Amino acid sequence: MNSVTHKAATRGHANHGWLDTNHTFSFAHYYDPERVHFGMLRVLNDDFVDGGKGFGTHPHDNMEIISIPLSGDLEHKDSMGNVAVIKQNDVQIMSAGTGIQHSEYNRNKDQKVNFLQIWVFPKVRNIKPNYDQLTFKPEDRINKLQQIVSPSKEDEGVWINQDAWFHLGNLKKGFETEYTIKQKGNGVYAFVIDGEVTISGQKLTKRDGFGVWDIDALSIHANSDTELLLMEVPMN
């Protein structure tokens, strides 16, 4: 087993006034040569956006961009004609492919929106851009690992152009489970949204990250009520 641990306090941080953000991996003005990516996982940003503020129209290409709101409502518009609001329990993905433009704004004036912005390198480059958004039942991840992202359109979760699987879990104190790697050679990056958990012997607390590879499975023990995101991605 190989692993890397990123404690919450070691993340890159930037406060732009309207945006308070933490970067698990190198992003914008934050650069750490030891923290550029984890396999195909390129970006994991923990964004807090002030009421009514947001990201103006900007381009992307050849990247899988996943947004997971943790609180508040995020309004999305893109050059494919999609106009949507994503909120807690929603998961949105854009396969940027040959190129898209989009904007994201906090729909509410009176509260912040907190969301995870995640980028994954694509499996196939220069595909036609694609958009997907699904709402998931929170009760279906209580002491379970609920699949929210999948490379198969026949499987549960939003579709991603990569051999990657994401799962969310709301695990009660004392709960134990195991996650089995779905594709040989993949690794798993765990991000603790809230709570305290031990994964394959590593104790983690709120907003810590833990990447593991060269394994067949992970053991998970919730030391407290814990909200957990698992991201399985190819390492090469």
β-strand number: 22
| Strand arrangement across the biggest beta sheet | 1-20-17-22-15-13-14
Shape: globular
- Poorly predicted regions are none
Please describe the biggest sheet, giving its number of strands, its sense, and whether it closes into a barrel.
7 strands, mixed
The share of residues in helices is: under 10%
**Helix- and strand-based class?**
mainly beta
Fraction in beta strands: over 45%
Give me the oligomer status: single chain
Number of helices: 0
N-to-C span: 16 Å
H and E string: EEEEEEEEEEEEEEEEEEEEEE
Overall pLDDT level: 97
> Any idea what the radius of gyration is?
17 Å
What would you say this structure looks like, in words?
The chain is mainly beta. It is built from no helices and 22 strands. It has strands at residues 2-6, 12-15, 19-23, 41-49, 54-60, 64-71, 73-78, 83-87, 90-95, 100-106, 113-120, 130-135, 146-150, 158-159, 165-171, 176-180, 186-194, 197-199, 202-204, 209-213, 217-222, 226-234. The strands form four sheets. It has a seven-stranded mixed sheet, with no helix packed on it. Strand 7 and strand 8 (83-87) form a beta hairpin. The two termini are 16 Å apart. The model has no long low-confidence stretch (mean pLDDT 97).
